[in-house]
Predict the 3D structure of the following.
Amino acid sequence: MLPDDACTTVIACDQAHLGEFAVAMPTWRKFHPELWRRPMVAFCDDVEPPRWWERQFRKFAPHDNCRFVAVPPCPGASQRGRMLATFIFGVAEHVSTRWYLKMDSDLACMGPCPDWEPDDWFDDAKGHVFIAHPWGYTKSIKMFTDLVAWAATVPALAGRPEPPGHPKESKDHYKHRRIISFLLYGRTEFVREVAALAPALPCPSQDTFLWYMAAKLGRPYCTPNMGKRGWAHNARRLHVRCRAAMEQELPVS
């Protein structure tokens, strides 16, 4: 397991997702109390000041070492794109630990996991730049082709091979082996590196960008099945899952 001073938990919240955090975060704290011993950064929509967000979070998941940072305006970006971009540029600026753990608002922890944070995930000799759940496509095709077109204009990326895959027109998917980041451990120095190459996200998806940069730069990453490690990512049943999790009795140590 990572030392408490080696990892910062990061979340991003706006008004539309505050209710999800209210039911999800207590399950994180119940089964992973280490997250409440570690620093946390909450990137929050600037429609309300950071102190307002702090008061809301204290109602359901008080954290004594959490900083609340306003997400800056991003002209031309959608609300979703602005909030997701902070997982690149906000992390690069505000996280000082070697690793960070990015968690989504609709993520429930369903129970303890005996094989959590194994040392080989974070082994410097292996050099993983992130650890996240595997995924099989990018949606839409345009999102991927926009990344390819952008990369051709960046000297550090131009001429490097593209990650293997193919379009599936009927579903507007680009099929390839990649990741989804409902729960993602990232190496902070890698985020700083890729943030320096892009003044803004070239596509409205931080995990697509992060995966693409690792693939283009030839950096290793790890894709364990997070569902088999106690995590459930499904907003439509979030309240039901969280209620079931909170009703569980903790194992006797």
User: Anything to note?
Assistant: The chain has one domain: 4-134+180-247.
